[in-house]
Amino acid sequence: MRLVTYETTGERRIGAETAEGILDLRDAVRALLSARGSGDAAAEASWLVPADMTAFLARSANDFALCTEALAAAPPAAHQRPGAVTLCAPLPRPGKVIGVGRNYGAHAAEGGLAGQEQPRLFAKFSSSVIGPGAPVIRPAGIRQLDWEVELAVVVGRPMRNVTAAEALSFVAGYTIVNDISAREFQFDVSPPQTTFAKSHDSFTPMGPVLVTADVFGDPQDVEVRCEVNGTEVQHGNTADMIFDCATILAYISRFATLEPGDVIATGTPAGVGHFRKPPIYLRPGDRVACFVAGIGTLENPVQDPA
């Protein structure tokens, strides 16, 4: 499934994106349960499909069979046109957002840096998450605003001290994260402030959909691209990752429990603005489009504070 969090008439809901549009997942499950003779289909569907994606993933525990069946049974008339709703980030306030630095060989090389022996991790505050189309706000005084297209892994079941061999079975699905960075705080201060550099308000565009793992397939052979104002600036493949998704998940779970709805941004390919000669940074009026094959395109404008 292609899961979305969306808003309509002031209410936030979970839906599924199809060729016909956006289908309200709770309504679809209610209709299926009612057809099966449920005594209280509405109450059962409300529990199975809450309005919050994190709660939905926790209750689903990576078993989306009922939702998939409900989606297949829904008539085309039940779908809403994409333009009739506002897409939010699939996980508007994830419990944790963890980034992996320098995880593509070409990206490490463009910065003149060697790859790490273990994943290099940082946090991104959940308050920095925005959805597709929402503006990235360049904070006052920041001039080194940079882009980073990333495949993001979304956890579906609690993970603690799992092996790499079993790690992907805990994954609910995948989405796109643009790891916006204020390079001043990452490189020009001592000590470096990597987490802060990447956690300002609006610095984690996410979406447009969460593609469930059963549909997405192998995360280690996926094209990723980024364009700024229509010009390609990044083009890579997850095969260039130094640490693959399973290894990253297993490593984190050795030290910290990963929970349903947690998001891991797995690194970016070469082509960021900071390491270009001369450097190029985002300015108000720019539009950044991040593409990951099998997911789609996440696009956001850049603005100064109001």
Task: Tell me the count of domains.
Answer: 2
CATH homologous superfamily heading of the largest domain = Fumarylacetoacetase-like, C-terminal domain
The secondary-structure element order is EEEHHHHEEHEEEEEHEEHHEHEEHEEE
Largest β sheet strand count, sense and barrel closure: 11 strands, mixed
What's the quaternary structure here?
Answer: single chain
Task: Name the poorly predicted regions.
Answer: none
How much helix is in the residues? 10-25%
Quote the distance from N terminus to C terminus: 37 Å
Mean pLDDT: 95
Report the portion of residues in β strands. Answer: 25-35%
Number of helices: 10
CATH architecture of the largest domain: Alpha-Beta Complex
Question: What is the 3D form?
Answer: globular
What does the radius of gyration come to? 19 Å
Describe it.
The protein is of the alpha+beta class and 306 residues long. It has 2 domains: 2-87, no CATH class; 97-303, Fumarylacetoacetate hydrolase, domain 2, CATH 3.90.850.10. Helices cover 22% and strands 30% of the residues. The chain contains 10 helices and 18 strands. The strands form 3 sheets. Strands 1, 2, 3, 4, 5, 6, 7, 10, 11, 13 and 16 form an 11-stranded mixed β-sheet that branches. It has a 5-stranded mixed β-sheet with strand order 8-18-17-14-15, with no helix packed on it. Helix 1 (25-35) crosses helix 2 and helix 1 packs across helix 4 (65-73). The model has no long low-confidence stretch (mean pLDDT 95).
